[in-house]
Design brief:
Layout: H1 2-31, H2 37-58, H3 78-92, H4 99-104, H5 110-141, H6 151-176, H7 178-181, H8 190-209, H9 216-220, H10 228-248, H11 255-273, H12 279-311
Helix pairs in contact: 1-3, 1-6, 1-8, 1-10, 2-6, 2-8, 3-12, 5-10, 5-11, 6-10, 10-11, 11-12
């Protein structure tokens, strides 16, 4: 019970602080100057509570939306709580680690971990290719480096962005709630759902108070992410890619890899079209993000090797 609670709290904060910026980062970037942080917090909390309780009710007490079907319940031990603790440390220094790899690797078999890795690599590649193709066309129609939306149309883009972000937030949560639910029984008691709801709201509020924290820098350094039109398009494309993989199978995947792949393809497309935005400016940004992802992957592999071959060599 102790390590289940400790692991849950570490995982909940790490997921909110590290991964939620993928979905809410562009929304924060383009709305933080117009709205107080607590209005954004209230709006996102309402979607989170709906997703949590809706998933719990339609999946017979399973808040992971079936993402843990291949990972049977294991009573958490101290070494399971070590994974989100490492994630928490990496998050605080601004490294976009895959929570799926880092947390679930402590519970999953090497076979399931291999399937997760393959699906995530495919997700990164598909997101990059789709983004490159779309923004190769989009950048010829609109200038992503400039916010040239007519004043009368901004309010429509802003409404569209809030709706798109809500859809993306729900889709993303249906993937990544598994990274927290792995510490809980597969059928979560109602008391734990209430407790989880309170914890999520508190951590989410702190994240908004920090305006996304250090992970938010990954969003802000990309072209035009502070503009409501660009943020809306990014969120919409990301949401449909996640929805596709959600319906494809129930193997967990790294949404971080999908998101970074999306931003990578987008930046490459913009640099291809724009004359004053060359690849030499884009490559350092892309390379830095990719290296940070590899750091998280290596940490995940290290945890798997530590648990499976040193701490409990005869099995979990």
């Amino acid at each position: 019970m102790l390590w289940m609670a400790v692991g849950f709290l570490f995982a909940a904060y790490s997921v909110v602080a590290n991964d939620s910026v993928q979905t809410l980062g562009t929304w924060i970037a383009s709305n933080s100057q117009r709205f107080k942080w607590y209005w954004l917090w209230i709006a996102s909390s309402s979607v989170l509570l709906f997703t949590l309780w809706y998933g719990w009710s339609i999946n017979n007490g399973d808040i992971s939306f079936g993402r843990l079907n291949k990972i049977p319940w294991i009573e958490p031990q101290w070494y399971h709580a070590l994974a989100p603790l490492i994630l928490l440390a990496l998050t605080r220094v601004g490294i976009p680690v895959s929570t799926t790899f880092l947390v679930l690797s402590a519970f999953a078999s090497t076979f399931v971990l291999e399937q997760m890795l393959v699906k995530s690599i495919v997700g990164y590649a598909i997101a990059a290719v789709i983004a490159y193709g779309l923004w190769f066309v989009i950048e010829r129609l609109i200038d992503e480096k400039a916010d040239k939306v007519k004043e009368k149309n901004i309010k429509y883009w802003r409404v569209g962005q809030w709706c798109t972000t809500g859809f993306l937030w729900y889709t993303w949560l249906s993937h990544d709630l598994a990274n927290i639910a792995v510490f809980l029984p597969r059928v979560v008691p109602v008391g734990w759902v209430i407790f989880a709801s309170v914890i999520f709201i508190i951590f989410l509020g702190y994240m908004f108070y920090e305006k996304g924290g250090k992970i938010q820098k990954i969003i802000l350094e990309k072209t035009g992410t502070r503009y409501v039109r660009s943020a809306t398009i990014i969120d919409l494309v990301y949401a449909f890619i996640l929805l596709f993989f959600k319906q494809y199978n129930d193997i967990p995947m790294s949404t971080t890899w999908v998101f970074v792949g999306l931003l990578c393809g987008r930046e490459l497309a913009i640099s291809t079209v724009m004359k004053d935005y060359k690849f030499k400016y884009v490559f350092p940004i892309i390379a830095k993000d990719f290296i940070k992802m590899l750091v998280g992957l290596l940490a995940s592999i290290g945890i798997v090797l530590l648990i499976h071959y040193i701490i409990v060599p005869n099995g979990l």
